[in-house]
């Protein structure tokens, strides 16, 4: 076991992790931040996306010890400081970009990374960016609309696919 310290959602957090402990497991089990989901265990689904030092990372592909000293942002850190939904979260609610909600944390975190790098992405750019995230419920149409809305763009022209 090793002591792992990181800044998670703006707060210093410390816990114990074996060398084989994945970041997603450390966040959920050691730090009790259960918003980051474990979906596939093979890095295919994107349910575990978090930001590490400002970059979107599938937390099932990184060891907790690799994140020692890092800045980590999880879905819990996406809300406004008053606890209300952040812009992307609110857009997902407003445009029904979720059904069961299992993929939603990873989708929101991926959307935030996309909008950081590309504040006004096209529909096709959003669809391409989300290829690493799987949703089995929505068909992605409303997720794309939500991301377009969060970027301040008109969603009426989003094509149903």
Automatic annotation (TrEMBL):
<dbReference type="InterPro" id="IPR001041">
    <property type="entry name" value="2Fe-2S_ferredoxin-type"/>
</dbReference>
<feature type="domain" description="2Fe-2S ferredoxin-type">
    <location>
        <begin position="2"/>
        <end position="78"/>
    </location>
</feature>
<keyword id="KW-0411">Iron-sulfur</keyword>
<dbReference type="InterPro" id="IPR036010">
    <property type="entry name" value="2Fe-2S_ferredoxin-like_sf"/>
</dbReference>
<keyword id="KW-0001">2Fe-2S</keyword>
<dbReference type="InterPro" id="IPR002888">
    <property type="entry name" value="2Fe-2S-bd"/>
</dbReference>
<keyword id="KW-0408">Iron</keyword>
<dbReference type="Pfam" id="PF01799">
    <property type="entry name" value="Fer2_2"/>
</dbReference>
<keyword id="KW-0479">Metal-binding</keyword>
<keyword id="KW-0560">Oxidoreductase</keyword>
<dbReference type="Pfam" id="PF00111">
    <property type="entry name" value="Fer2"/>
</dbReference>
<dbReference type="InterPro" id="IPR036884">
    <property type="entry name" value="2Fe-2S-bd_dom_sf"/>
</dbReference>
<dbReference type="GO" id="GO:0046872">
    <property type="term" value="F:metal ion binding"/>
</dbReference>
<dbReference type="InterPro" id="IPR012675">
    <property type="entry name" value="Beta-grasp_dom_sf"/>
</dbReference>
<protein>
    <submittedName>
        <fullName>Carbon-monoxide dehydrogenase small subunit</fullName>
    </submittedName>
</protein>
<dbReference type="GO" id="GO:0016491">
    <property type="term" value="F:oxidoreductase activity"/>
</dbReference>
<dbReference type="InterPro" id="IPR051452">
    <property type="entry name" value="Diverse_Oxidoreductases"/>
</dbReference>
<dbReference type="GO" id="GO:0051537">
    <property type="term" value="F:2 iron, 2 sulfur cluster binding"/>
</dbReference>
């Amino acid at each position: 076991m090793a002591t792992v310290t990181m800044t998670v959602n703006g707060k210093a957090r410390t816990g114990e992790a074996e060398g084989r402990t994945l970041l997603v497991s450390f966040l959920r089990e050691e730090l009790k931040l259960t918003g980051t989901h474990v979906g596939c265990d093979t890095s295919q689904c994107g349910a575990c996306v978090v930001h590490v030092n400002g970059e979107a990372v599938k937390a099932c592909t990184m060891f907790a010890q690799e994140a020692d000293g890092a800045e980590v942002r999880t879905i819990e850190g996406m809300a406004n400081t008053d606890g209300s939904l952040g812009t992307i979260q609110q857009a997902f609610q407003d445009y029904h970009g979720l059904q069961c909600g299992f993929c939603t944390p990873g989708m929101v975190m991926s959307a935030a990374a996309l909008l950081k790098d590309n504040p006004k992405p096209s529909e096709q750019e959003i669809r391409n960016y989300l290829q690493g995230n799987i949703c089995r419920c929505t068909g992605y149409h409303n997720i794309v609309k939500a991301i377009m809305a969060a970027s301040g763009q008109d969603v009426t022209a989003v094509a149903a696919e």
